[in-house]
Amino acid sequence: MPDRAVADRTVEIPPDAWGRRSAVSPVMPWVFALVVVLLLLGRFVLTPVLAAPALQTWATVFVAICVQALPFLVFGVLLSAAITAFVPPSFWTRALPRHPYVAVPIAGAAGAVLPGCECASVPVASGLMARGVTPAAALAFLLSSPAINPVVVVATAVAFPQQPLMVVSRFCASLAVAVLVGWVWLRFGRSGWLRIPSRPPASGSSWAAFRDAMRHDLLHAGGFLVVGGLTAATLNVVVPRTWLASVAGIPVLSVVALGLLAVLLSICSEADAFVAASLTAFSPTAKLAFLVVGPMVDLKLIALQAGTFGRSFAIRFVPLTFLLGIVTSIAVGEVLL
Amino acid sequence: MNRMSQSLILVLLGGAVLRVTVLSTTYMNYVKPGFRPFLIAAGAVVLVLGVIGLVQEWRKPHVTETGPGQRDEDTGSGSAHAAAGDHGHHHGHDHSRVSRVAWLLCLPVFAIFLIAPPPLGAFAARSEETPPPPPSLSADAYVPLAADRATSMALGEFIGRAWGDSRHSLAGKKVTLTGFVVRSSKKDRWYVTRMQMSCCAADAIALKVAVLDAERPPDDTWVEVTGTWIAPKSDKIPNGTVAPELAATDVAEIPQPFEPYE
């Protein structure tokens, strides 16, 4: 709707803070002023040129992924910054059991309480680690909270009205994967693989620490979210979904295929049940794999995790989670579906 | 990346989000209408965070001149000086430094302003080859249709009735469908199409109804098609493999509806 935009664009950008920057640094403000002018004029010059349907479709999907994830990211970052700034470290040692092998399932089950997308869980988990929570327990929370929270459970029930067991299977399989991954990480993980984001001790008021932690996390995680959004949008537009139909009938391969599709599509966990329900050609177990893997491993999550916890963490954690997700889905699917 | 650029990126991002939600309805091209309050809240938080950062940067020279400790946020930066040594205005060793990946946040802003992405159209619907979803309502939950006039109907409901209604409530009834035009590989038909999304445009699926007996308008034209359902000749074709068919009596071009998705 470009014509509607022309009228009110000038009101929004530049914002009111724009004029103040001139007092600070001589170069940056001019660069940004140039960017804003480009954004204003580019609407007339570039928009008609950038009208190829493929590009527009790509841009719509890309912007949609970013826009849709932003509120969840902001919420997660708010929560994480609040944990860092306002909750004393001693709280977590009292709240979670001392023994790490017991703390993992408790933290995993705690994920059922917090409604949030996967984009929110990464900064929250990093905030927990920075506050001294056992990494394995924080990772179990990271995996379970987007998969088994109330919003996702309700969405799944709505998407599968004739199959209440799908909701039960999803809940059990996701929690099982989260706890298993936590235990495996506890047993075999090395501390060198995981870069725990360091938080400086709160200097000055906790309010200032809150603001700083929030800005840092938002920019950092936001940047990696864009990386994931770029990849997911490109695959969404470039890869045709027809190849899927050919593997729908093959038992194990179809489960792996839908697991991979969940990774590529990077759909928010609150929406993926509807997409899974639309994949009518596939067996319930394959759909379950889509629902279990999606909230735990996808392109934007991989980018977020690699950015937050380091690359050497991501190359071990992501395949482990994917593998356990597929195996658990098959096992739970055999029993319940 | 210094604090100045960080704050400016946040201002741009927050501004862009508020721009598509508060000042226009462009956000409906990307997400569900119900998402608006969350987007406004998120955009406002990001914008405020950026503006606070800018104000702090702007005040900094005054702080060193007048001495720290005047305002509460100044005490924060003052003791940070004491703790981190020469950290101050430039790159510190802590949270004031953000990796360069944050520049990527400019990309969605550029996309929003320069490409101005429209709602998904014929291109996305054509490449979308998966069969449409099964009927959302269970069979027999549909009310009978009026016999004397055309009933306006969502494409999803039409497809649901065509596939899932054992009482054939569509048979012989006139209906009006709204959607955009997508051409078909077959000569005698085209599709009236609507994208259905459950959360955002990334998960949108195309709902298609084949229109017969009518001249095809150009792709992406929004139309209102009035006609009657053509019952499939055999029951052998399983649901979801072919689009239901409509014999059109009238095709009217309309402007794009307020809500582009179904």
TrEMBL record, chain A:
Location, primary (coarse class):
membrane
One GO CC term, this protein:
plasma membrane
Compartment(s) where it occurs, according to its Swiss-Prot or TrEMBL record: Cell membrane
**Alphabetical list of Pfam families matching this protein:** ArsP_1
Which keywords does the record carry?
Cell membrane, Membrane, Transmembrane, Transmembrane helix
Q: Which family does it belong to?
A: Belongs to the UPF0718 family.
What's the protein name?
Permease
UniProtKB/TrEMBL annotation, chain B:
Q: Does the keyword Membrane apply?
A: yes
Positions of the region Disordered?
63-93
- Composition-biased stretches (Low complexity): 76-85
Keywords on record: Membrane, Transmembrane, Transmembrane helix
InterPro entries given for it?
A: DUF1980, DUF1980_C, DUF1980_N, UPF0703_membrane_permease
Entry keyword Transmembrane helix: yes
Q: Which domain of life is it from?
A: Bacteria
Residues forming coiled coils: none
State the Pfam families in the record.
Answer: DUF1980 (PF09323), DUF1980_C (PF21537)
Every DUF1980 domain range: 8-122, 170-261
TM region positions? 34-55, 101-125
Q: Which NCBIfam families match?
A: TIGR03943 family putative permease subunit
Q: Which PANTHER family match?
A: UPF0703 PROTEIN YCGQ
- What is the name attached to this protein's record? TIGR03943 family protein
Q: Which organism is it from?
A: Planotetraspora silvatica
